[in-house]
Automatic annotation (TrEMBL):
It holds the Pfam family Sulfate_transp. This is SulP family inorganic anion transporter. The chain crosses the membrane at residues 21-39, 45-61, 66-83, 89-107, 119-138, 150-169, 176-195, 225-247, 268-287, 299-317, 324-346, 358-389. The keyword ATP-binding does not apply. Keywords: Membrane, Transmembrane, Transmembrane helix. It is found in: Membrane. InterPro entries: Membrane-Transporter-like, SLC26A/SulP_dom, STAS_dom, STAS_dom_sf.
């Protein structure tokens, strides 16, 4: 894994990395412009963010091949702040969000992304695929009006042509990534034949200079902190959730392992630099990451090349890039959306537990109508409650009376907050004999609620003047009972003891 995280030259397919990087850079342009419009800032603010985020995370991030830039998720989060306080407050909010992300990585909290259940992952992927697909329809507008008649048919024809090239070119040759070939072919046809169709330049000019150091023009006081803190927390949270879930997805596709904690630190540093250079910040981009991976890139060079190429577009090649038909990029993103959607999830809907189906669909829907962070949190909560309920009803007690007249309760299933009530109801305090033994050989006490349930059992038997003994409790449970100064009787003589065979 460490070898995968290094910026190495040995064994690198530079042709694939370069071509993939160029394809990603071209695809980043309309996305950055569109997200800038959503946030209410200049297109250069989004383009600078894409350059900084892409470069820093490509060099330092925990997932080679993953692309970061200005994203819709971050644009939606910061839009209310910009509308209320102006763009000056955007930059310190992004910087503080980056600091929070670095803290998450430094504390090694990125590992908690493993707690996201698979149905939530499927819902996340499907929801984002729908969001990517849906977002392309805004490109069919000129001056706020949807295309119609001949201009619409021309654009649709070019979109379909781009999609066909991406679908079938790999079956003929893989010398050049099919998304790049689609962009070049559609652009060549449109420019060569003088076809009137919307271009990147119709969205906005991308010409600009190098980003420069910017000190946020806001008061550095507690009032400013209170204004930006809620937005910084959202930037950090949404950015890390989208980045770490994208990292996990690419891990599965490439059958390699990235580092969530390293990615968290890199995302944070990238956002800090972005905030100090006039960028709107961002996070991992699943669409561009999928373009990169599907084009064959597997190392850091593609992300570096994409960022450098995007900066070159802004500095030197804006007049050329602005001539690229929007239809070519829409066709690329449509195919990314189709490739991102987990079609296998539709085939298993009637083969998996209904709860998982509900979670998958709910996360997909909430991702589309709300945002990713809310969707993932909703999915995790639903899955956690379902898990807790399933385990709560599993606790059982086998009951028997031995030759000495003692009542045995053999507990199996976890004892925790969800099962504590069911556990308590297993006992017949009034009718049980004088001596009761509760055996935890096949059970485990998982939390404080379980400890409290044991205490209540003990107290209830004491009320009836009966003696209860607990056996085979785990050591951590015994330690907790000792700390709580519980006056219950634990019989260690029945605990198993194991000898070790060694060669004398």
């Amino acid at each position: 894994m460490k070898q995968n995280l290094q910026l190495s030259i040995k064994g690198t397919d530079f042709k694939t990395e370069i071509l993939s990087g160029l394809t990603v850079a071209i695809a980043l342009v309309p996305e950055a412009i569109a997200f800038s419009f959503i946030a209410g800032v200049s297109p250069l603010v989004g383009l600078y963010a894409a350059v900084i985020m892409g470069f820093v995370t490509a060099v330092l991030g925990g997932r080679p091949g993953m692309i970061s830039g200005a994203t819709g998720a971050i644009a939606v989060v910061v839009m209310p702040l910009i509308a209320a306080k102006g763009v000056d407050y955007l930059f310190p909010a992004i910087i503080l969000g980056g600091v929070i992300q670095i803290a998450v990585g430094a504390l090694k909290l990125g590992k908690f992304i493993r707690l996201v259940p698979h149905p939530v992952m499927l819902g996340f992927v499907n929801g984002l695929a729908i969001v990517i697909f849906k977002a392309q329809f805004s490109q069919f507008k000129i001056d706020g009006e949807y295309l119609s008649g001949t201009p619409l048919y021309i654009m649709l024809g070019l979109v379909v042509l781009a999609m066909l090239v991406i679908q079938y070119l790999p079956k003929v040759t893989k010398v050049i990534p099919s998304p790049l070939m689609a962009i070049l072919l559609v652009s060549g046809i449109a420019i060569g034949f003088g076809i009137e169709t919307p271009t990147v330049g119709d969205m906005a000019s991308i010409k600009g200079g190098l980003p420069s150091l910017l000190i946020p023009n806001v008061p550095f006081d507690m009032e400013t902190l209170m204004i930006i803190l809620p937005f910084s927390l959202k930037v950090a949270g949404v950015g890390l959730i989208e980045s770490l879930l994208t990292l996990t997805l690419i891990d599965e596709i490439t059958e390699t392992r990235g580092s969530g904690n390293r990615e968290s630190v890199a995302q944070g540093l990238a956002n800090i630099i972005s905030g100090f250079t006039g960028g709107m910040g961002g996070c991992a981009m699943i669409g561009q990451s999928m373009i990169n991976i599907q084009s064959g890139a597997r190392q850091r060079w593609s992300g570096i090349i994409a960022a450098v190429a995007l900066m070159a577009f802004v500095l030197f090649l804006s007049s050329i890039i602005e001539q690229i038909p929007i239809a070519a990029l829409v066709g690329v993103m449509f195919m990314v959306s189709i490739g991102t959607f987990e079609w296998s999830s539709l085939r298993i809907l009637n083969k998996v537990p209904k709860v998982d189906v509900v979670v998958l669909i709910t996360v997909s829907v909430v991702t589309v109508i709300e945002d990713l962070a809310v969707a993932v949190l909703v999915g995790i909560i639903m899955s956690a409650l379902s898990f807790a309920w399933e385990n709560a009803v599993r606790i059982r007690a086998r009951k028997k009376t031995d030759e000495f007249g003692r009542k045995h309760y053999e507990i199996y299933g976890p004892l925790f907050f969800g099962s504590a009530t069911n556990f308590f109801e297993k006992f017949d305090f009034k009718n049980d004999p004088q001596e009761v033994i509760v055996d935890f050989t096949e059970s485990r006490v998982a939390d404080l609620s379980g400890i409290e349930a044991i205490n209540k059992i003990n107290e209830k038997y004491e009320q009836y003047g009966k003696n209860v003994t607990f056996i085979h409790l785990s050591q951590d449970c015994i330690d907790l009972l000792d700390k709580a100064k519980s006056h219950i009787e634990i019989d260690h003589d029945h605990d198993p003891h194991y000898g070790v065979v060694y060669d004398a």
